[in-house]
Design brief:
This protein is α/β, with parallel strands linked by helices and 273 residues long. The protein has two domains: 163 residues, 3-Layer(aba) Sandwich (Rossmann fold), CATH 3.40.50.720; 93 residues, ProC C-terminal domain-like (ProC C-terminal domain-like fold, Orthogonal Bundle). 51% of the residues lie in helices and 14% in strands. The protein has an eight-stranded mixed β-sheet with strand order 3-2-1-4-5-6-7-8, sandwiched between helices.
C-alpha cells in the first residue's frame, strides 16, 4: 500500500538501470504514479535494457545524454561514478529537478558539479520500492524549492512511504532503511536455518519466518506499540520465548545491530569524502 496517490504528468529520466533503478522504475509504473511512456532509462548494458523494456514497457537508451532533457532526472548510479556522470550530463540538466540516490553524496557536492541554480534533491530509497513497500528519506539542496521537494517526496511515496529530513540525518537513515533489507534478509535466513536444524523443511521454515516478520512489522506500525512492549507481550514466565530471548541477548544481538548501523554510517561518510 502506498501512502500517497500521485499521477505525475512530466517526463522522467532514470540514469542507471541497475537494481535500485529497476526498483524505482518498476514501483512507479506498477503504482500508476508515472506512465511507462513518460520514463526513459539510460543503461549501458543491452541485456539490462531488454529486461527493463520487457518488464515495464519503458523506453531505454544506452547513453545518459539520449535520455535528456527531462523534467525530473534520477541519478541511480554508484557514488564512485556520480561526479563523472553529473559533469558529463551537466549541460542538459539545468532545467531539471535532479534527484540523487547515491549514498554519502551531499546535495552541495552535486550542486557544485551542475549549472548554477540547478535544483538538487537527495533521496535514500530501498529495494522494497519494487513491491510498493519502500522507505525513502528526502533531503533538499539549497536550490530546490518546497514545491520541488514535495514533488520528489510524493514520487517516492508512491513506492511505499517517504519522509523529508534535514540532510545531516541522511547517513544514519541510509544505514537503517537503505541497508536494512540486507539485515532483515539475514534474520529470515538465520531463522529458516534454525528451523531446518530442528527438522522443518526449508520452504516451510522460510515461509514461517517471512510471514512472522511481515506480521510483526505490521502490528508495530498499526498499533504504535513500542517493540519492548511487544516482546513482553509474547514472553511468558518460564516459557519458550524468554529462553530464546535470553539466548539472543547472551550473544549481544542488539549491540551487533547497533554496530552494523554504525559501520554503515562510517562507510557512507567515507564514500561522501
Amino acid at each position: 500500500m502506498t501512502e500517497d496517490s500521485l499521477h505525475y504528468d512530466g517526463t522522467l529520466a532514470v540514469i542507471g538501470g541497475g537494481r535500485m533503478g529497476e526498483a524505482i522504475v518498476g514501483g512507479l509504473v506498477r503504482s500508476g504514479a508515472v506512465a511507462a511512456a513518460s520514463i526513459t532509462v539510460a543503461e549501458p548494458s543491452a541485456q539490462r535494457r531488454d529486461a527493463l523494456v520487457a518488464a515495464f514497457g519503458v523506453r531505454c537508451v544506452a547513453d545518459g545524454a539520449e535520455a535528456l532533457p527531462a523534467d525530473t532526472v534520477i541519478l541511480a548510479v554508484k557514488p564512485q561514478v556520480i561526479d563523472a556522470v553529473a559533469v558529463a550530463l551537466s549541460s542538459r540538466l539545468a532545467n531539471s529537478v535532479v534527484v540523487s540516490i547515491a549514498v554519502g553524496i551531499t546535495c552541495a557536492r552535486l550542486e557544485a558539479a551542475l549549472p548554477s541554480g540547478t535544483a538538487v534533491v537527495r533521496v535514500m530509497p530501498n529495494t522494497p520500492a519494487l513491491v510498493s513497500e519502500g522507505m525513502s528519506v528526502i533531503s533538499a539542496g539549497t536550490e530546490a524549492t518546497a514545491e520541488q521537494t514535495e514533488l520528489v517526496r510524493a514520487l517516492f511515496a508512491s513506492l511505499g512511504k517517504s519522509i523529508v529530513l534535514e540532510e545531516r540525518y541522511q547517513d544514519a537513515a541510509a544505514a537503517i532503511s537503505g541497508s536494512g533489507p540486507a539485515y532483515f534478509a539475514l534474520v529470515v535466513d538465520a531463522l529458516a536455518r534454525g528451523g531446518v536444524r530442528q527438522g522443518l523443511p526449508r520452504d516451510v521454515a522460510q515461509a514461517l519466518a517471512i510471514q512472522t516478520m511481515l506480521g510483526t512489522a505490521k502490528l508495530l506500525d498499526t498499533t504504535g506499540m513500542h517493540p519492548e512492549a511487544l516482546v513482553d507481550g509474547v514472553t511468558s514466565p518460564g516459557g519458550t520465548t524468554i529462553a530464546a530471548v535470553e539466548a539472543l541477548e547472551a550473544r549481544a544481538v542488539r549491540s551487533a545491530f547497533a554496530e552494523a548501523v554504525a559501520a554503515a554510517v562510517r562507510r557512507s561518510k567515507e564514500l561522501g569524502s
